[in-house]
Amino acid sequence: MSLLFPLFMLGAAALVLPVIFHLIRRSTREKTQFSSLMFLLQSPPRITRRSRLENIFLLLLRCAVICLLALAFARPFFQKAFSDPRPSTEGKTVVVLLDTSASMRRENLWADAKKRAQAIIASLSPLDRATVLAFDQTIRPLLTFEEWEQTEPAARSSALGQRLNSLSPNWTATYLDQALIRAAEILDESQRARGAGEELRQIIAVTDFQAGSRLSQLQDYTWPRDVQVRVETVKPKRPTNASVQWISERDEGGAVSVTRPRVRVSNSPDSGKERFQVLWKATSAITPVQAYVPPGQNRIVQVPTLPEGVAGHSLVLTGDDAEFDNEAFIAQAAVLNEKILYLANDPETDSTRPLYYLKRAFQDTRRQKVVIETGAAALASLSNSDAHFAVVTTNLPPDAIARLRQWINGGRLALIALHNTNMIAVVAELAGIASLPCTEAEADTYSMFGQIDFQHPLFAAFADPRYSDFTKIHFWKHRRIAAEALPNSRVLARFDNGDPGLLEFALAKGKVLVLTAGWHPAESQLALSSKFVPLLYSMLDLSGAPVPRSAQYFVLDTIELSSAGEQNNASWTVRKPDSTTLVASNSFSDTEMPGIYTFTSLQATQKVAVNLAPVESRTGLLPIEELQRLQVPLEIKSVRTAAQVEQQRRRLHATEMENQQKLWRWLIVAAVVILVVETWLAASLTRRSTVQASQA
Amino acid sequence: MAADVLIEPKALMAIRDLEFRARVVVEGFWKGLHRSPYHGFSVEFSEYRAYTPGDDPRYVDWQVFARSDRYFIKKFEEETNLRCYLLSDNSRSMQFGSLSYNKAEYANTLAATLAYFLHLQGDAVGLLTFDQDVREYVPARYRPGHLRHLMFALQKPAQGTATNLTPPLKRILEIVKKRGLLVFISDLLAPTEALDKYLAILCASGHEVIIFHVLDPAELTFNFGQASLFEDIESGRHIYIDPAVARRQYLEKLDAHCKAIESSCKKLGITYYRFATDRPLELALFDFLLASSYRQKRISRSRGYAGSLA
Q1: Beta carbons of A416 and A517 less than 8 angstroms apart
Q2: Which residue of A has its CA nearest to B94?
Q3: A665 touches B: beta carbon within 8 Å
Q4: With the CA atoms of A622, A623, A628 and A629 taken in that order, what torsion angle do they form, in degrees rounded to the nearest 10?
Q5: Does residue A565 register a pLDDT over 50?
Q6: How far apart are CA B26 and CA B33, in angstroms?
Q7: ipTM for this model
Q8: Which residues contact A222 (CB under 8 A, 6 or more apart)?
Q9: Which of A35, A41, A45 sits opposite B246 (nearest CB)?
Q10: DSSP conformational letter for B107
């Protein structure tokens, strides 16, 4: 039998109390009257030598009660053989996450992180399993479980070291949440694959734990059981970090000047410095502008104008300790000049003609200027290829149609709005068929678009239920064409009586859209509706016109090079900041480094500035409570040796056994029974003695 | 005297009537007295008186007849009339008794016995019983029915709640103008200094004082068995006493107290007797007569045949 709390047995020392009381017991209830106490002094209670032998039994009973109570508190139990359930062959499974984001480029952080990771690997026992992942905005494995198992235990650290030597931090942001979730998934998969039971699973993240780390995805994530997360923070020796960001948008409208840009200077909360300078990298002739920014705040600074003839592409910040976020690249967003050919001679100010509305639909924007050429000039422009979109609203002579056809073949879009049935000749000519039956639809009441193909890129913007209501647009007149008569055509919109409203057919590399009604008020309400402008812009997109893009991109953003037209496969040559060239077609996403990217195509050259994500410049240390708040199971640091762990397990086993046996209850019951017996015995003895005394 | 003649106080106290108790003691005493060889010891010869027919021939002094051929009667002390006051302490401490009767009853019985005896002798007896104040007062007279009056007063049970000797002693001094005999029966359980004061007062007034210091046998021997809480009968105070431990000290203190009283009495010329309440009352009577004879001896030496005391 063994005791759970042996210290309580000290309570048995209380045994001495009944013994003392037994010996020095005085019958305080007995009173004797005496005449005077003049000659008497109080006698102190002393141990009488005459101990009452008949009360020894009661004394023994009381001692027994105290012993039983002390034993009950000490919680005895019968020790069964302690079998260690956890075989000692099990190790733990560890996932090491290494931060390779841009903030790790600061002075000593990357070296520290590498050392830390190697130390972690070296501290694992041969029975443990580990894998190493590098993470920033993406996750890349450095050492998988299989490689780990194939390597000798002694060689694992150096194997990792070799991989790390070829690795260096990128320019990307830190997606810590994504990395942690992926690590937890890996642990889960590995456990399921091995069918292992209770094993210790750990995620160790070696990171600078900056405030700019993304943690939002952790909010809804339910962590698997028994996974512990530890964050090994690498701290810079000099944490002062200020960053500079180019403000490329202006809310009030107005041009963003590239020669006199405005920048935001942000200072991290743990900085030690407050004064910084912003200067043009290209030239040192301009005095730098001073910026006073207290820690944790940001200020907007107007940079001095570049002198004439000097091309400046980046601004540099000096005065802080971290270099990685001190350069802001600036590129002028090109204003696209797009030409639309209007093959008719409408007066511009006539509001009954379609041109009036077309011109007003294409207003000049910050990034795009649309020029509509009309009449003969438009016809003449058919020979060159700078326009992408042509609009036909009258019947054309055959040679014009031929030239149009040739023009479309090169990969353009033409919109033919049938204002009368005669114009069907244009369609037929373009389609290459002899004739096309076309009649005027009855116009007793208006029609509207009843069926629209929202899958088509033209209407894709209207697919949302908020914008898909075309029933407000009334068409007074339209022409009826048999869609089947037009080969390879696709009906994009039908009127409610089934007549095709908008058809599309391909012509070599180009496309032709046939609208069976006009948009001017005599024909319909299309030009007056709010859907007119977006529809026209969709057509412009479809025509393959280059898409205006934002001036500033961030690392790993995708740069759209062309519009959504399938036929437009213009190839662009991309020159990256490190002077390598690539070829891209529709979009370019290899924006791994910040800098100026130059896109050259047959038509145009564009420069795009790619900058570091501003969130990565927030290098203040994140408090660990953020992870606790998101209920990440952080490791509780307990410095315990194996012996202590073993001892704790034994103790838990003992507690469990004692809980099962619960001997203390029997002991309490016995104590109570003995107390009752003792009380009854004492009462009967006292009664007997008083009877004897009264008889005497 | 032969012990078997003396009456056990226990048996005596069983007699309920106080007068009868007194009579038993006195008559028993006379019987013993006549049989004792010390016949006439306790009575002192005071003077001769010419014989007249009718006198008891027992009292004829035959030696004088042999010398003078005349009949002379010896006149003894008791024939001279005296005024005697019996002072019986009935205070609370006197109500303690370890026998079937307490000290107050014994004292009252003793007083009754003395009263009876003195009355038979023809002396005027007065009574004063007191506790914290004068309880009963009977002036000294010699009249028919006076004895009954005395007995009646003595039979009243002691009701005292405290002990204070000052008022009764003051009262006595006021009352007793003419010199007489004062018999003080008490347990004298009061501080010695106070007692000295009282006794000095008494003696200074010219009275002859006899003190009977009566104590319970338990008080004298302290033969208690178990340790218990001892309660003061007067104040109600409790003390835990273990008799085995406390006896010696108690006896020492008691002895010292009694010796102090004795020495003061000796200094003041007071006759002092101390005994326990289980002592037969005849012996107390004996002591009384002894004391009287001593006193008479002193007076007769100083006065000669001066005549009877008025």
Answers
A1: no
A2: A35
A3: no
A4: -80
A5: no
A6: 10
A7: 0.72
A8: none
A9: A41
A10: H
User: What residue in A sits closest to B225 (Cα-Cα)?
Assistant: A32
If pLDDT is split at 50, 70 and 90, which confidence band does A50 have?
very low
B156 in Cβ contact with B135 (< 8 Å): yes
Mean pLDDT of A105-125: 88
Mean pLDDT value across chain A: 84
pLDDT computed for residue A134 by the predictor: 93
Q: Do A37 and B232 touch (CB under 8 A)?
A: yes
Query: How many Å apart are CA A199 and CA A694, to the nearest integer?
Result: 80
Contacts of A48 in chain B (CB under 8 A): 227, 242
Q: Which residue has the tokens 């690997």?
A: A121
User: How close, in Å, is residue B67 to chain A by CA atoms?
Assistant: 60
Distance (Å) of CA A490 to CA A110, A477, A483: 58, 21, 8
CB neighbour list of residue A55: distance below 8 Å, 6 or more residues apart: A22, A685
Indicate the residue of B191, B230, B240 with minimum beta-carbon distance to A34.
B230
**Gap between the Cα atoms of A417 and A408, Å rounded:** 16
In 10 A of CB B39, how many CB atoms? Answer: 11
Residue whose C-alpha is closest to residue A67's, from A13, A106, A118, A19: A13
Q: How far apart are CA A346 and CA A355, in angstroms?
A: 6
- pLDDT tens string A205-228: 999 999 989 999 898 889 888 888
Q: Is the pLDDT of residue A263 over 60?
A: yes
A26 and chain B: CB distance < 8 Å anywhere?
A: yes
Q: Residue A648 has what pLDDT? A: 84
- Min Cα distance A684 → chain B (Å) is 21
DSSP state of A44: P
Q: Give the C-alpha separation, A304 to A326, whole Å.
A: 17
pLDDT digits (tens, 9 = 90+) for B105-132: 999 999 999 998 888 877 888 998 888 8
The mean pLDDT of chain B is 79
- Residue B297 pLDDT > 80: no
- The CA-atom distances, in angstroms, between A589 and each of A70, A606, A617, B14 are 77, 16, 22, 135
**CB–CB of B6/B27 below 8 Å?**
no
Tell me if chain A has a CB within 8 Å of the CB of B1.
Answer: no
Chain B residue closest in CA terms to A49: B244
Chain B residues within an 8 Å CB radius of A36: 93, 189, 232-234
Please compute, for residue B286, the number of CA atoms within 13 A of its CA located in the half-sphere on the CB side.
17
Predicted model pTM: 0.49
- Please state whether beta strands A368-374 and A314-318 pair in parallel, antiparallel, or not at all (unpaired): unpaired
Task: Tally Cβ neighbours within 10 Å of residue B81.
Answer: 15
| Interchain pair A45, B230: CB under 8 A | no
pLDDT of residue A254 exceeding 60: no
Pairwise CA distance, residues A187 & A167, whole Å: 24
Decide: B176 and B85 in contact? Cβ < 8 Å: yes
A61 touches A681 (CB < 8 A): yes
What is the sign of the dihedral through the CA atoms of A640, A643, A647 and A653? Answer: positive
